[in-house]
Amino acid sequence: MKSTILKIVVSIIVVSIAAILTYQLRESNLASTDGSIQITIVDDLGNIVFDENVTYMKDDSFFDVLNRKFDLTCATSSYSADDSCAYDFSGFAYQGKVLLGIKGDDFTVQTDWSYSFLKFETYGEDDYHLATQGVSNIEFSNHDKIRISYASVLEGLS
């Protein structure tokens, strides 16, 4: 009898821990307040084509901020271009969009995912650092700086 109760208790604890870990890994980084962030966009030639503060609202994701300000091109499940950005990638540790292109009034930065991609970097400790989350889950708060750069898949190879 005690053995059965112990097995049930241990099973409940293990399932609870798994559920909590799954929730934490899939948690979206939404803005906790209204504010603004500095967004810098660099094209395929290394030119800064956009460098401005952009406002956001409480409960916005970084993707929401970009989608409101720019015309975006996202990836479909097969990584082909989709201007509607309707497809969400979903897996154990990730859920969100894959951004292939971004267009403003005076610029277009477009990648193909096979040979190029958009690199997201957040500013901290006096320099930019590669973001560890995708465009839907990048954490940000008021006055943060985020840089989006065209990057070649072969960049850094010699």
Report what the structure shows:
This protein has 158 residues and is α+β, with helices and mostly antiparallel strands. Helices cover 21% and strands 36% of the residues.
Radius of gyration: 19 Å
Total DSSP helices: 2
Beta-strand share of residues: 35-45%
Assembly form of the protein? single chain
DSSP, total strands: 11
Overall spatial form: elongated
Strand order of the largest sheet: 2-1-11-9-10
- Helical amount among residues, as a percent range? 10-25%
The string of secondary-structure elements, in order, is: HEEHEEEEEEEEE
Quickly give the structural class.
Answer: alpha+beta
Largest sheet: 5 strands, mixed
Residue-averaged pLDDT, rounded? 88
Low-confidence segments, ≥5 residues, pLDDT <50?
none
End-to-end CA span = 66 Å
